[in-house]
Amino acid sequence: MVEIAAGCRAFEEDLSAWIDGELGASRRAVVAAHLATCGDCAERVEQLRAVDRALRALPAPSVGPELRRGLAERLASEERSAARPKLRTPPRARRRLAPLVALPAAAAAALALYLSLRPAGAPVGRGPDLPLAGGRAAQPPGNGPAAARAPVAEVPAEAAVAETREAGPPGSGDLEALESEELAVVLELDTIEDLPVIANLEVLERLLAAEAG
Amino acid sequence: MEAVGDPVRPGRAEAPEETGADQDACLMLAFRSGDAAAFASLFRRWSAPLLRYLERMVRDRGSAEELVQEVFLRVHRARERYAAEARFSTWLYRIATNLALNELRRPRRREPHRSQEERGAPVLVADAAGPEAVVDARRLGARVERELARLPEKQRAALCLSAVEGLSYAEVAGALEVSEQAVKALVHRARSALAERLLEGAGGAGGE
């Protein structure tokens, strides 16, 4: 243990706070005055600063794609668990279901964003190409939450269900008008429960990969 | 006697750039409203600092990566409850710290191995004749990591959050859920302990 002179003990506890700029103005002035005249304490400050430099010089780990992918998969699993109680329905049921707006808000928005990101003719799931968002660019975050929540007005219900390679006209119809079952048909999913899973997983994987550059 | 200079917080440069109001809080609120891109932005801004902090805390890369995922999972779960009462980074590091402390308390964790020849090897040189201590980074890295890992967990957390992650004492207090006075003491004890263990020629510093 380093010996601290009696006169310096009063300042010892303040030395780290001095380095971190956490002392109040009056105490800072008192410590500064002491450091100007006490070689031991001044040396101590330099030792403590050297520790910080050493810590900041340590190599920092980098975030790899496995971490991003693992997160996206866990999020998808969360969404699946969250969605299941709300959307319990036999697969391929023909009766009308609650509209998409009943999904958790984040899942609905994620799906909206997902559909807006897909270029025209891009394959979805295992089926043939279906016209979806017609290549419209993703909305920038600056548009605000209202825009993210707004329906992606690219997919009229009729065009979505019909198997055609023409791009659907933008503007008319909205996602909330699509029954969940119709949307599942559009995306060629086995069950309605896969909707938020697919949406969230794909959106997040693409966004996280894009953010990584 | 040369002046030691004004105190600075170079660690602040490590934090993501801030622009006025808490940008992260804005992103979080946007995410709460359904903006998935905002969540991706938060991930881009914070995944690396969190990984760095968590790896120093739990001393294992694989566990740290899992904990980073867990932090963002909890951020995702908590989105509808998020009210921007505290600074976003304080909240984030509080989640991370609690996860790290829980991980460290799991009974089957083993202590990091210390090789005999590294004990007492001088790596940190303080030159009393000059204003700055001379640090040999090549020798320092592994030794510093080992000594950091030996610190009591709350001291290690306080020092990493303050000196590396650039949090203020008030923010560290929020993350560790202790008082600012406690943070001041924790930081100082941690720094002092590292200085003594790493200092060249410190009498008896090699013994524990």
Q: Into which percent range does the helicity of residues of chain B fall?
A: 55-70%
Strand count, sense and barrel status of the largest sheet of chain B are: 2 strands, antiparallel
Strand order of the largest sheet of chain B: 1-2
Secondary structure: helix percent of chain A? 40-55%
Q: SS-based structural class of chain A?
A: mainly alpha
State the total count of DSSP E strands of chain B: 2
User: What's the mean pLDDT score of chain A?
Assistant: 64
The oligomeric state is heterodimer
Total of helices of chain A: 10
Distance between the termini of chain B: 34 Å
Low-confidence stretches of chain A: 92-103, 112-177
| Sheet having the most strands of chain A | none
Features:
heterodimer, A: 213 residues, mainly alpha, elongated, B: 208 residues, two-stranded antiparallel ribbon, 58% helix, disordered N terminus, disordered C terminus
